[in-house]
Amino acid sequence: MLKSYLLILFLFFTSQFYEEVAAQTNFTIEGRILDLKTEEPISGVSIRVKESIKSSSVMTGSQGSFRIRLHQGQTLVISHLNYMPQEIQVRSGQSNLVIRLAEDPHMLSEVNVTGALGIKRQARELGTSAQSVDNQELNLGKVVNPLLALSSKVAGLRINATDLTTGKTDPGIQIRLRGTRSLNRSKNDPIYVVDGVPLPDITRINPNDIQDITVLKGANAAALYGSEGVNGAIMITTKSGRAERGQINYSNSTLFSKVFLLPPAQQRFGQGQNGVYSPVANESWGDRFNGEVRDFGLPINGVQPTKVYSAPDKDNRLDFFDTGVTVQNDLSFSSGDDKGSYYVSLQDVRIKGVIPGDKSSRTGVRFNGSRRFNKLNSSFNTNYVFFKNNTTSDGPWLSVYTQPANIDYKDARNWQDPSSPNHPLNWYNPVAGTRNPIFMADNNRNTSDQHTLNSKLEFNYEFTDWLDATFRTGLYFQSEPGRVTNRKLVSNIATRNINGSVNDTHRVFTRFNNDLILNFHKNFGDFSTKFLVGQNVRMDDTKSINISATNLLFEDIFNQGSRTGELVGGSTITKYRSLATYGEFTAGYKNYLFLTFTGRNDQVSVLDPGNNSYFSPGVSSSFVFTDAIASLQKSRVLSYGRIFTSFNKTGNVTLDPYRLNLSYSQTAGFPFGSLVGFTPSLSEPNRSIKPEFVKSFEVGTQLGFFNDRLRTDIVYAYSDSDGQIFDAGISRATGFNSTIVNAGQIINKTYEIMINGTAIKSKDLNLQFGLNFSYTDTKAKNLYAGDEFNIFRQAYAIKGLQYPTLRMTDFLREDGKIVLDPNGNVIPSEEEKVMGTMVPPYLFGFNTKFNYKSFTMGFQIDARLGSWMYSEVIPRMFAAGTHPETAKYDRQPFIMPNSMVRLADGSIVENNEVYSKGDKAWWTAYGNIQSVTAAKGDYLKLRELYIGYDLPQSWLSQQRMIKKASIGFVGNNLFIVRHSSNTIGDPEALYNQTDGYNSFRQIPTSRSMGFNVNITF
Questions:
Q1: Hey, what CATH class is 112-241 in?
Q2: How far apart (Å, rounded) are the C-alpha atoms in residues 332 and 758?
Q3: How far apart, in whole angstroms, are the C-alpha atoms of residue 71 and residue 69?
Q4: Residues of the chain with CATH 2.60.40.1120
Q5: Per the database record, which ranges form the TonB-dependent receptor plug domain (predicted)?
Q6: Rounded to an integer, what distance in angstroms lies between the CA atom of residue 686 and that of residue 157?
């Protein structure tokens, strides 16, 4: 017994000794891998023990974390394709090791991009095209709206600023990736994702807060977003703090804007009719300007005002517009340590518009923070923006294009003086449509106070080195109270009267978005696997209220209580719900061959329960052939090459909430008198509507030459959007005039070429350039009823033609010559003429950045070719006699050059003796021929220019406060080259969500110039 007891004690102490020795020589270490520049975690980094041949490597997860077992004094080898390798000797007792990797300058083609769900991925894994724009490129032109900053920087991406009713200092945005997929014009925007959370709108985000933007093109790249990603995705990553001493940045940008590209106007003939001057005429059909002093307008208190009858030396319409001013101030602070970081920013933007009285202000604050607690990683973002807008409502400048050239808009600004001829009661013409436009701008105001809050809370827990879970929730809230007022004006002349009105509105929108994601990643020898599965819940709630009175009693009281008549108004409440389950599996072989499968099942509340669930599958692959083929690995010419392809079938639902319900509304006088009655909607609900499906195919190659000094991407993409959901006209005998159908088809074919390179690279001199080109062919197929339907005004969807198509009335022609009637009048064609597509199929962008010592110059050139546009301004100018063509023949009868005449017997002969009158009636009829208003929309413009100077460090070395400082010149839209047929305006400027349509309501384009100052403390 004693021997046995001693033996047990001996074995126990021996085991304890060996355990202590082992504990001293074997231990497990945990750590994280971060990017040296951005402090962001790097996934997919390989960590192995150098001294152990049998040691298998571990890979970092989505948060850059790893865990590995090794002996005292052994060395860790850290490697990643995009970064410089590192070796670190580890000693016992170390924990929470943080390793920062620097990018490999020879692997520029190998970048990490922000993929779907906000997950960083190696570009070589993707079977789709993605293009990134960093902060420096994005803020070249110092624009306030981050979407406008993307213009012409991404192949296949088209961005237009649109003129909304309240958009004079806050333009709307139309954005299209690889063309149009839906016949519903308002349902073609990509999804916007900020730090992994989808948002309905990103125009309020401070561009200076953005680290980079990755554009995922088409449904293939954004497959995990299902319907929301069918038009691609704009992935935004905002800045985070760095684990270093705190840093403060301040910048100021001040830009001055002037309108340009107004349609030209004649300045030879002034106000009057039939060649005779009239002091109250608002048309330019009078006699020639001669410098005489003439009566102007009606007598004021018995005194007749007079004015010199002459045109100014410059375009008098320019005096209607102000010089716009945009002042942008930004302040940010960032700091952190090895376990966390934070970033705080403040922004204040003040904008004075080009329309008199228009102004807006925007004040925003952002906080981004992250913290690590062992295996738990947390992050929190919040951004609040208060936007205050005060603009004139739609209309005050309508008459500027049609009023005579002798109107002095500088004098018109003095309308408050009751004895002035510019006062609204004394204005030279009493017709309501030609009131003093300065008075109208001041009298009719649209104000709003918009509060926007978006926030994200995210937790990531690493169960093992091959499994982690992410819980992410986002809240977007926007409240926008607004008011539209029109001041009452009382006059003894009925046409001068204005009924005072007020309309109070309030819109509240809330979106809750939640994702739960499980992420598996494991290597098996030469094979790597990644698998994620997740669930998304989205809830949208909208409430809109308005109450208005259109007959106010007092001039200076805007209150619905002081009115005559009934109040008008109501409220609208809508809810939208969606539930989705998605998954993605990626298998890789030797890090050069990848195959990815995706799938997503959506359930949406806007469809009938029998049709509201649908599945969207996809597959993609990528092959880095320069790594797979030994003979190419040491090539001095081709340094990198891969090919990729993908296919997706994505369900898409473009219905608004409650469209499948038959709605009823009250109608005045129905059934008769004051009895209350309801009438049904004239649009028939169709509860059998199913999702439309978009089949997308993409193939491309990415090549790097000469040690990646030159890089290029070539891509072909195809999409087939079938079973379109849209309103189609039906026989009114059914009791409806339209119905919702699954019909129609749109085919998109896109070719893209992107070239980037470094032409010169030395110690003092650096020249980089980038070029992108795309051609998109969008055609309508298999329309519901017949071969066409009208979209808007002269825009049509026509089977087999590019979408949308401009079709207009033309002159009756014979052998290309205009045919007149026996009296010399123009004759409209019996059939409308197809002009061409209204969307430019050819997009071209070129940018360059030149650095020489402390000097920097960068510019962006944008070109769009192949489209048509038309204007509603032009016919009005013809009718008013302000268009230059109306003065072409000195207001005398003339024989139209190169014309023909249709005789009474129907024969058509050359015109040698039939005179056209050339008076108002003749030119009005001429201007009403719609093809007169059309022009080619081709253009090339210098979109952005920046010239900057960095203050030398020798200047700053005498103090410790300022680390870096720079000053620069900024210019936007500095010049434009248009097609010779285009005297309308800027083809890029659109009215609302139209294509190629220039409204008489929208304001002209502006060019801006100014300066920028940046200081780092």
A1: mainly beta
A2: 31
A3: 7
A4: 26-101
A5: 124-233
A6: 34
| Residue whose token pair is 């270093």 | 244
Structure confidence by residue, pLDDT tens digits, 93-111: 666 788 888 877 655 456 6
Q: Could you tell me if 569 and 545 are in contact, meaning their C-beta atoms sit under 8 angstroms apart?
A: yes
Helix axes 920-927, 873-880, angle to 10 degrees: 170
Lookup: tokens for 571: 């409220």
Pick 985 or 50 by higher pLDDT.
985
- Ramachandran angles phi, psi of 632, nearest 5°: -95, -10
Cα(158)–Cα(152) distance, integer angstroms: 7
Q: 2 pLDDT band (50/70/90 cuts)?
A: very low
Q: What is the DSSP letter of 933?
A: G
Question: Is 640 within 8 Å of 111 (Cβ atoms)?
Answer: no
| Sign of the alpha-carbon torsion through 265, 266, 267, 273 | negative
Is 771 strand, coil or helix? Answer: strand
- What pLDDT, on a 0 to 100 scale, did the predictor assign at position 786? 78
Name the pairing type of β-strands 97-101 and 26-35: parallel
Tokens, residue 328: 């942008």
CB atoms within 10 A of CB 600: 26
Helix/strand/coil for 1014: strand
Q: Tell me phi and psi for residue 803, to 5 degrees.
A: -105, 135
290: left (phi over 0), alpha (psi -120 to 50) or beta: alpha
Distance (Å, rounded) from C-alpha 545 to C-alpha 408? 41
Phi first, then psi: give them for residue 528, nearest 5 degrees. -120, 145
Query: H/E element holding 921?
Result: helix 920-927
Label each residue of 152-199 as H, E or C: CCCCCEEEEEEECCCCCCCCEEEEEECCCCCCCCCCCCCEEEECCEEE
Q: State pLDDT tens for residues 541-559.
A: 999 999 999 999 998 899 9
Q: Which helix (H) or strand (E) holds 428?
A: none
C-alpha 945/C-alpha 60 separation (Å) is 42
How many CB atoms neighbour CB 64 within 10 A?
23
Q: How far apart are CA 841 and CA 696, in angstroms?
A: 19
Return the C-alpha torsion angle 203, 205, 210, 212, nearest 10.
-30
For the segment 444-449, the average pLDDT, to the nearest whole number, is 94
Q: What is the Cα–Cα distance from 936 to 686, expressed in whole angstroms?
A: 40
Q: With contact defined as beta carbons under 8 Å apart, do 686 and 625 qualify?
A: no
Residue 245, pLDDT score: 67
pTM of the model: 0.89
E strand residue ranges, 735-854: 738-742, 745-761, 765-781, 788-792, 795-798, 805-808, 813-814, 817-820, 833-837, 842-852
Cα separation of the two ends of the chain: 79
Which residues, listed in sequence order, are joined to residue 934 by a DSSP beta bridge? 870
Mean pLDDT of 64-92: 80
Specify whether the CB–CB gap between 541 and 513 falls below 8 A: no
The strand order across the sheet containing 725-729 reads 683-684, 738-742, 725-729
Who contacts 433 (Cβ-Cβ below 8 Å, separation ≥6)? 398, 399
Q: Which of 866, 885, 865 is nearest to 875 (CA)?
A: 885
Bridge-based pairing state of the strands 899-902 and 817-820: parallel
Domain limits, CATH 2.170.130.10, in the chain: 112-241
In 3-state terms, what secondary structure has residue 149? helix
| Measured distance CA(256)–CA(971) in Å, rounded | 9
DSSP letters spanning 16-57:
HHHHHHHHHHEEEEEEEEEETTT--B-SS-EEEETT-TTPPP
Neighbours of 431 (CB within 10 A): 13
Over residues 648-690, the pLDDT tens digits come to: 999 999 999 999 999 888 877 777 777 788 888 888 888 999 9
Which CATH code fits 26-101?
Answer: 2.60.40.1120
User: Are 241 and 253 in contact, with CB atoms under 8 Å apart?
Assistant: no
Per-residue model confidence (pLDDT) at position 106: 57
